[in-house]
Specification:
- Strand 5 and strand 6 form a beta hairpin.
- The protein has five helices and twelve strands.
- 32% of the residues lie in helices and 28% in strands.
- The chain is elongated, with a radius of gyration of 33 Å.
- The protein is α+β, with helices and mostly antiparallel strands.
- The longest helix has 43 residues.
- It has a five-stranded antiparallel sheet with strand order 6-5-4-3-10. A five-stranded mixed sheet has the order 7-8-9-12-11, with no helix packed on it.
- The chain folds into two domains: 204 residues, Mannose-6-phosphate receptor binding domain (Cation-dependent Mannose-6-phosphate Receptor, Chain A); 69 residues, no CATH class.
Length: 315
Amino acid sequence: MRIQSSGVTLLLSSVLPSLSAALTFDCSHINVDKYKYDFSPLSGVHELYHVNETETAVTNTTYVLNICKNLGSKAADRGDDGKCGQTKRICGFVNRHPTDGNGSQRFGFPIVGLDPMGGGSMEPEFTRLATIDPDTEGVRVKLAGGEFRGDDDEGKKKDAAAVIDFTCDPGRSGLEGLVTEEDSSDADEEKRRRDEKSRDGSLQFKSFELGEDDTYILKLDWRTRYACDDYQRGKQNNSNSWGFFTWMIIIVFLCVAAYLIFGSWLNYNRYSARGWDLLPHGDTLRDVPYLMKDWVRSVINTLQGSGSRGGYSAV
């Protein structure tokens, strides 16, 4: 059976964008101005809470994120609390209670991620923090792919994105104070208390507001040792040095093995040797234990001789 070229084209056009989009941001390989960063240790579903109290309402927003992978159905679709989309990496879930007790709202919205079918792009942008502030070390990551409708947007959704400042802090792994997906079933009051406890955590909420480019921007600050230039450089140097010694040991082992195999084959075919005689320089190898014993005895005698006291000998 022959497949029409138009069908193949349609199939490739639907598959290739998903594959290319999935490669637009890899948290373990971030290259900025010849500096390399690996944030894969920060992978996993984490939650961050922010409470905004006004005269008209109390708004509790839960930000759920996984910078390395899509959130999936469990983290992104929360039933009555709203749905965000399985192909998203950062979502927000709003629980708004008016002060008069009428018109409570629960809904979810995407901030960073791919289209529902896996297409599109997160449009990653990277900037070293040192270029913004010479006294700050780290990298700023901007990711897009979401949308949000604010109270003043007249029913129209606007683009949403996230700006995360990964700031160097040698004393932090980046996981301090984070709430995991398993804790997401807590009641609202418990979430508020947990939010107070996590105010000194490594991941901090800065703001979520409409930017100058008419895009809602979620700003986060993530303090971690993985954003330190010295940490990444030391990690790379250790990896390179260990790789060099590993290859050197392998090469030496292969050379010795080739020498023994070839020498044994040569002795077998030329002299019909057997046993120890097969090995090249077999006589020398057999004498090695005795040579070592003589060398040790010589060293001991030298040390004992240098420690003896001088004087007159009896005649």
